[in-house]
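task queued by scheduler; priority normal; single chain, no ligands, no partner chains; default sampling; output format set to structure tokens
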Amino acid sequence: MKRRGNILKRYQNEIYIVLIILLSSMISFNLGRIFALKSSGQIPKIEEANISEILNQEVRKEEGKKEELKIDFRVVASKNGTRYHYLWCPGAKKIKVENLITFNSEEEAKSRGYTLAGNCRK
């Protein structure tokens, strides 16, 4: 055990230098990726990406009452697809705004021939 402590003390400065180089290279790499995505226009605008805002799902605070979470049970689908999604499903966030169809209930979506996506859970 004493020997391990001596080795660590001996190479302590080199270990710090290696860690600094690794961390700075990781940060530089990720900053480059972010810049490339931003300049190519692949980062979606917040207005388009926030489907819960589009479908009016929000937390309401009323005076004198506890915080109340209003859950929106509407479902969405794509004009080009055959599956419907709950608002919190990953597939719902991938639907382009111009292809988005909103149904007031699951029954309405089912009556139009849509079926529930496999990755959506209640």
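post-processing summary
- The two ends are 54 Å apart (CA to CA).
- The longest helix spans residues 12-40.
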